Amino acid sequence: MKLPCYLVRDLLPLYKDELCEPETAADLRAHLDSCPDCRALWEKMQTDAPLEREAVQAREREQADALRRVRKNQRKKRMLTVLASVAATLCAVTLGLGALYEYARTTYPDYGAEVIEEVRYEEQGIPGNSPFAGEGLYATLSAEASGALVSSKMVDTENSTAVVFTVSGTLWQQWLDTLGRNAETPANTRTAICTAGGYGQAEMESLCAAYYLPYHSFMSWFYQNNAPLPEDAILLWQRDAS
Which residues make Cβ contacts (< 8 Å) with residue 20, sequence separation at least 6? Predict the structure, then answer.
C-alpha cells in the first residue's frame, strides 16, 4: 500500500519506537526507499535520537540528584531532631540528678534509738589526744548507721551532769554506705559520745547519764540557751550508783 508523505511523517515517531503493525512498518520502509524528503526526515530523527536520550538522561540525573539532596536533608533533619531530643533528655537527667544529689547532700534523716546497740563507759577509751579519745562514753552503732557522726551536749541536772547526743548523717552518706557495704564490712561501729579529750576529765567524772534524741529534735534543743533536759530524750546509759 502506497502511503502519502503527510501520513508517513505522522507515523515516523511510532515507527521509530517500533510501535507500528508489521504491515504498516513495511509500507513505511517502502515509502522511505522511494521518497528522498521523507528519508531525509527519518535520517534526521535518527541523528537527533542520541541527543534526545542524552537530554532525557540529564533530566533523570538532575532529578536523581535533587532526590538525593532531599533525602540527605531529611536525614540531616531527622538526625538533628534525634540529637536535640538526646541533648534535652541528657539535660533533664543531669538537672534531675543534680537536684537529687543536692537533696541527698543536705537532707539529714532521723535515726531511731534502735541503731545504738550499746552505750558503755570506758576508762581507757581510744588512745590519743584528740577530742574523741580518752576516758569517756562510747556507743556501738549498727551497720545501718555505720557512717554516721555523733554530736553531743552536756546538760546539768538536779544533782549531776548528763549528756544528750544524737546520731547524724546525710541521706547521700547513707546511700554511699549501703552501696559500699559487703561481707567484709564490720557489722557495727564503735564511736565516741563524749570523752575527756573533748570535755575534760572533770566532766567525765561527774557524768551520770546519757540520753538520745533524733537529729532534728536534738538540733532544735542544741541551740537553746540554758535549755533543760528534753522531756522526750531517751535514757540509754546511767552510771552505776555503786
Answer: 11, 14, 28
